[in-house]
Amino acid sequence: MSKTKSSRLRYNSLGDKIFDTCNIIFMLCLVTVTLYPFINMFAISFNDANDAIKGGIYLWPRMWTWSNYQYIFNESAIYHSTFISVIRTVLGTVISVFCTAMLAYTLSRQDYVLRKFVTMFFVFTMYFSGGLIPGYLLIKNLGLTDSFWVYIIPGIIGVFNMIVIRSFIEGLPEGILESARIDGAGEFTTFLRVVLPLTVPSLATVSLFVAVGQWNSWFDVFLYNSSNQQLSTLQYELMKILQTSNTATTQSAADIYAQSSSTHTVTPTSIRATMTIVASVPILMVYPFVQKYFVQGMTVGGVKG
Fold first, then answer.
1. DSSP codes of every residue in 115-163
2. 26 lies in a domain?
3. For 269, how many CA atoms within 13 A lie in the half-sphere containing its CB?
4. Which residues are 47's β-sheet partners?
5. What is the CA radius of gyration of the chain?
6. Of all helices (H) and strands (E), which one includes residue 77?
7. What's the CA gap between 181 and 204, in Å, rounded?
8. Is 110 inside a domain boundary?
9. Domain total for the chain?
10. Where are the beta strands (DSSP E) in 155-230?
């Protein structure tokens, strides 16, 4: 009883209270710095573009309007490009994570003779590349230009993602894999039925990385499929809308101030904020489902990688 009382007194000491207060203040500042840019973009996207030019919009729209979103969603190509982006993200994530996990499992086996050589071969590509022009010529010679598969095949293996998954697999008890082999399971069956279910945290972490990269990518569309509207993605269409808005904005600030709000004028600032919200919402909807695995997967990969 006396020990409990003394420990309670130590916890309620002045030093503990100061630490708790500083910790809470620091975390509140961190949350504010993290969330404020997104909240500010949200406020600007729902604010009248003419009024937004005056500045002073921080956490809440001053003049509510849907005109910025109407301007974007009135583009007929948006809906088909969104479908292409969704298909690209889902298919690209599944194929990339599965193939990367198979490679990681292979390189995690201590009895694989070329384990160190193949690992260094892949790691080498993280620091050196052939460059933009040789990469374009390679894609062209492979016949992937003007094709949907140019979004999937070139990035099918991520070296950093492979290291994260391999580090997690190496931490699994060897006895589990040995018991599967004793029961007659081959390497692929062991990988599919034993390794994959046990590496869900690392797979969820890598899936988030790959999905965000696939969803946000637009430069490969510009390089390889810019002439094919049927293969355009949402990010590329939003980029074109922003460029059109920048080109069309030839009025001076004074002229814009003088316009009536009923004209629903859009500006590059309002379009940029609206694009940020439109592009971010799908990822924000997916993140809560993998958040519980994210910290665990990154911790294991960071410690052992």
1. HHHHHHHHHHHHH----HHHHHHHHHHTT-TTSGGGGTSTTS--HHHHH
2. no
3. 17
4. 64
5. 26
6. helix 77-108
7. 26
8. yes
9. 1
10. none
Take residue 25 and report the two structure tokens written for it: 């203040």
- Stated pTM of the model: 0.78
**CATH number of the domain residue 185 falls in:** 1.10.3720.10
Q: In Å, how far from its chain's centre is CA 195? A: 25
Determine the structural domain holding residue 214 and report its residue range. Answer: 69-305
The alpha carbon dihedral of 36, 39, 41, 46 has a sign of negative
Q: Tokens 């193949």 belong to which residue? A: 118
- Structure confidence by residue, pLDDT tens digits, 197-254: 888 888 988 998 899 899 989 999 999 998 888 999 988 988 888 777 666 554 444 4
Phi/psi at 146 (nearest 5 deg)? Answer: 55, 40
Q: What are the structure tokens assigned to 21, written together?
A: 């207060």
CA 152, 156, 159, 165 torsion-angle sign: positive
222 token code pair: 């510009």
Does 57 map to a domain? Answer: no
